[in-house]
Design brief:
Layout lengths: L1 H13 L15 E5 L6 H7 L4 H7 L13 E5 L27 E3 L12 E3 L6 E3 L4 E9 L3 E7 L4 E11 L6 E2 L4 E5 L6 E6 L2 E3 L1 H7 L2
Length: 212
Amino acid sequence: MLRLRYILFFLGFFLILPISSKQNPTTEVPSAYRVLKGDSWFGIAKKFKTSAETLAKLNGRTTKENLYERELLRIPKGEEKVSLSPASLLTEKPALPLVQKEKVVKKFSELTYDPHKGIQFQRGVSSLVRASLPGKVVHVDYMDGYENFVILEHQNGLYSVYGNLERIQVTEGQQVKSKDRLGILAKDKGLYFQVNKQKLSLNPERILEAGI
Protein backbone atom coordinates (compact mmCIF):
# COMPACT_ATOMS: atom_id res chain seq x y z
CA MET A 1 0.00 0.00 0.00
CA LEU A 2 2.87 2.38 0.86
CA ARG A 3 4.58 1.52 -2.45
CA LEU A 4 1.37 2.32 -4.36
CA ARG A 5 1.14 5.64 -2.52
CA TYR A 6 4.52 6.77 -3.82
CA ILE A 7 3.82 5.54 -7.35
CA LEU A 8 0.62 7.62 -7.42
CA PHE A 9 2.43 10.57 -5.84
CA PHE A 10 5.12 10.40 -8.52
CA LEU A 11 2.55 10.08 -11.29
CA GLY A 12 0.88 13.19 -9.93
CA PHE A 13 4.14 15.11 -10.48
CA PHE A 14 3.78 14.67 -14.24
CA LEU A 15 0.09 15.41 -14.53
CA ILE A 16 -1.59 18.80 -14.46
CA LEU A 17 -2.66 18.94 -10.85
CA PRO A 18 -5.77 20.80 -9.67
CA ILE A 19 -5.10 23.74 -7.36
CA SER A 20 -5.44 22.46 -3.82
CA SER A 21 -8.02 24.06 -1.56
CA LYS A 22 -6.59 22.53 1.60
CA GLN A 23 -5.48 25.12 4.14
CA ASN A 24 -1.75 25.25 4.77
CA PRO A 25 -0.48 26.84 7.99
CA THR A 26 2.46 28.56 6.25
CA THR A 27 0.90 29.77 3.00
CA GLU A 28 -2.31 31.41 1.90
CA VAL A 29 -4.49 29.07 -0.19
CA PRO A 30 -4.02 30.18 -3.82
CA SER A 31 -6.56 30.54 -6.60
CA ALA A 32 -5.68 30.35 -10.30
CA TYR A 33 -5.36 32.99 -13.01
CA ARG A 34 -4.75 32.47 -16.73
CA VAL A 35 -2.35 35.07 -18.15
CA LEU A 36 -3.76 37.23 -20.93
CA LYS A 37 -1.91 39.06 -23.68
CA GLY A 38 -0.45 42.29 -22.28
CA ASP A 39 -0.55 41.17 -18.65
CA SER A 40 2.33 42.04 -16.33
CA TRP A 41 3.37 40.91 -12.85
CA PHE A 42 2.43 44.30 -11.41
CA GLY A 43 -0.88 44.51 -13.24
CA ILE A 44 -2.01 41.06 -12.12
CA ALA A 45 -0.79 41.71 -8.56
CA LYS A 46 -2.77 44.96 -8.41
CA LYS A 47 -5.90 43.17 -9.65
CA PHE A 48 -5.67 40.63 -6.82
CA LYS A 49 -4.53 43.14 -4.15
CA THR A 50 -1.16 41.58 -3.54
CA SER A 51 2.44 42.52 -4.38
CA ALA A 52 4.22 41.59 -7.60
CA GLU A 53 7.07 40.08 -5.59
CA THR A 54 4.66 37.88 -3.62
CA LEU A 55 2.93 36.77 -6.81
CA ALA A 56 6.22 35.87 -8.49
CA LYS A 57 7.54 34.08 -5.39
CA LEU A 58 4.40 31.96 -5.12
CA ASN A 59 5.00 30.78 -8.68
CA GLY A 60 8.72 30.11 -8.23
CA ARG A 61 9.65 33.10 -10.38
CA THR A 62 10.92 36.68 -10.15
CA THR A 63 9.37 39.86 -11.53
CA LYS A 64 12.27 40.11 -14.00
CA GLU A 65 11.09 36.97 -15.81
CA ASN A 66 8.62 37.23 -18.68
CA LEU A 67 5.04 36.04 -18.45
CA TYR A 68 3.57 33.90 -21.23
CA GLU A 69 0.07 34.13 -22.65
CA ARG A 70 -2.24 31.43 -21.21
CA GLU A 71 0.29 30.59 -18.48
CA LEU A 72 -1.45 29.46 -15.29
CA LEU A 73 -0.47 31.43 -12.20
CA ARG A 74 -1.30 30.71 -8.59
CA ILE A 75 -2.82 33.73 -6.85
CA PRO A 76 -3.10 34.24 -3.06
CA LYS A 77 -6.65 34.97 -1.91
CA GLY A 78 -7.52 38.26 -0.30
CA GLU A 79 -4.86 40.72 0.78
CA GLU A 80 -2.64 38.30 2.70
CA LYS A 81 0.86 37.75 1.40
CA VAL A 82 2.39 34.35 0.79
CA SER A 83 5.22 33.70 3.21
CA LEU A 84 7.25 30.75 4.39
CA SER A 85 7.66 30.11 8.09
CA PRO A 86 11.27 29.89 9.33
CA ALA A 87 10.82 26.15 9.86
CA SER A 88 10.04 25.66 6.16
CA LEU A 89 13.31 27.15 4.94
CA LEU A 90 16.12 24.85 3.88
CA THR A 91 19.27 24.99 5.97
CA GLU A 92 21.48 24.65 2.89
CA LYS A 93 21.45 25.55 -0.77
CA PRO A 94 20.67 22.59 -3.06
CA ALA A 95 23.65 21.11 -4.91
CA LEU A 96 23.70 20.37 -8.62
CA PRO A 97 22.32 16.88 -9.24
CA LEU A 98 25.12 16.37 -11.79
CA VAL A 99 28.89 16.60 -11.35
CA GLN A 100 29.00 19.79 -13.43
CA LYS A 101 26.43 22.27 -14.68
CA GLU A 102 24.84 21.14 -17.93
CA LYS A 103 22.59 23.02 -20.33
CA VAL A 104 18.84 22.73 -19.68
CA VAL A 105 17.28 21.51 -22.93
CA LYS A 106 13.66 21.48 -21.69
CA LYS A 107 12.58 23.99 -19.10
CA PHE A 108 9.96 23.99 -16.37
CA SER A 109 6.55 25.04 -17.71
CA GLU A 110 2.97 25.25 -16.44
CA LEU A 111 1.53 26.20 -19.82
CA THR A 112 -1.57 24.11 -20.44
CA TYR A 113 -0.54 23.27 -24.00
CA ASP A 114 3.02 22.31 -23.01
CA PRO A 115 3.26 21.43 -19.30
CA HIS A 116 6.60 20.23 -17.94
CA LYS A 117 6.84 19.82 -14.17
CA GLY A 118 10.61 19.50 -14.08
CA ILE A 119 13.66 20.26 -16.20
CA GLN A 120 15.64 18.11 -18.61
CA PHE A 121 19.42 18.48 -18.62
CA GLN A 122 21.58 17.87 -21.66
CA ARG A 123 23.56 14.63 -21.54
CA GLY A 124 27.09 15.60 -20.48
CA VAL A 125 30.40 13.80 -20.20
CA SER A 126 29.76 12.55 -16.66
CA SER A 127 26.91 10.09 -16.12
CA LEU A 128 26.91 10.32 -12.31
CA VAL A 129 23.65 11.51 -10.69
CA ARG A 130 23.83 12.92 -7.15
CA ALA A 131 21.39 13.90 -4.42
CA SER A 132 20.71 17.62 -4.55
CA LEU A 133 19.79 17.71 -0.85
CA PRO A 134 20.09 15.37 2.13
CA GLY A 135 17.05 13.17 2.56
CA LYS A 136 15.50 9.73 2.49
CA VAL A 137 15.01 7.50 -0.55
CA VAL A 138 11.25 6.90 -0.53
CA HIS A 139 10.79 5.25 -3.92
CA VAL A 140 12.77 3.66 -6.75
CA ASP A 141 11.03 2.33 -9.85
CA TYR A 142 10.80 2.33 -13.65
CA MET A 143 8.42 4.31 -15.87
CA ASP A 144 8.23 4.42 -19.66
CA GLY A 145 9.58 7.75 -20.86
CA TYR A 146 11.54 8.37 -17.65
CA GLU A 147 13.48 5.09 -17.39
CA ASN A 148 14.55 4.19 -13.82
CA PHE A 149 13.86 6.96 -11.34
CA VAL A 150 14.49 7.85 -7.70
CA ILE A 151 12.34 9.99 -5.38
CA LEU A 152 13.92 11.59 -2.31
CA GLU A 153 11.98 13.07 0.59
CA HIS A 154 13.55 16.09 2.30
CA GLN A 155 12.58 18.21 5.30
CA ASN A 156 9.39 20.29 5.39
CA GLY A 157 7.43 18.49 2.67
CA LEU A 158 10.02 18.81 -0.10
CA TYR A 159 10.61 16.04 -2.66
CA SER A 160 13.11 15.72 -5.50
CA VAL A 161 12.84 13.39 -8.49
CA TYR A 162 15.70 12.02 -10.62
CA GLY A 163 14.75 10.29 -13.87
CA ASN A 164 16.38 8.71 -16.93
CA LEU A 165 18.73 6.51 -14.92
CA GLU A 166 20.26 3.33 -16.32
CA ARG A 167 21.35 2.04 -12.92
CA ILE A 168 20.11 2.97 -9.45
CA GLN A 169 22.65 2.71 -6.66
CA VAL A 170 20.47 3.40 -3.62
CA THR A 171 17.65 1.47 -1.96
CA GLU A 172 14.30 2.51 -0.52
CA GLY A 173 14.60 3.70 3.07
CA GLN A 174 18.25 4.71 2.68
CA GLN A 175 19.35 8.08 4.09
CA VAL A 176 21.57 10.11 1.75
CA LYS A 177 23.60 13.28 2.11
CA SER A 178 23.87 16.11 -0.39
CA LYS A 179 26.01 15.04 -3.38
CA ASP A 180 25.76 11.33 -2.48
CA ARG A 181 25.63 9.03 -5.51
CA LEU A 182 22.11 7.98 -6.58
CA GLY A 183 22.83 6.24 -9.87
CA ILE A 184 24.12 6.37 -13.44
CA LEU A 185 22.38 8.07 -16.37
CA ALA A 186 21.04 6.16 -19.36
CA LYS A 187 23.48 6.34 -22.28
CA ASP A 188 21.29 8.38 -24.60
CA LYS A 189 19.41 10.67 -22.18
CA GLY A 190 20.06 13.65 -19.94
CA LEU A 191 18.83 13.85 -16.36
CA TYR A 192 15.18 14.66 -15.65
CA PHE A 193 15.06 16.65 -12.39
CA GLN A 194 12.01 17.84 -10.48
CA VAL A 195 11.34 19.53 -7.13
CA ASN A 196 8.02 19.60 -5.31
CA LYS A 197 6.75 21.06 -2.07
CA GLN A 198 3.86 18.74 -1.24
CA LYS A 199 1.98 18.65 -4.59
CA LEU A 200 3.15 22.07 -5.74
CA SER A 201 5.76 21.83 -8.50
CA LEU A 202 8.60 24.33 -8.08
CA ASN A 203 10.91 25.63 -10.79
CA PRO A 204 14.10 23.54 -10.31
CA GLU A 205 16.33 26.11 -12.04
CA ARG A 206 15.28 28.78 -9.55
CA ILE A 207 15.79 26.37 -6.64
CA LEU A 208 19.31 25.48 -7.80
CA GLU A 209 20.22 29.13 -8.31
CA ALA A 210 18.78 30.69 -5.16
CA GLY A 211 17.61 27.88 -2.89
CA ILE A 212 14.22 27.81 -1.15
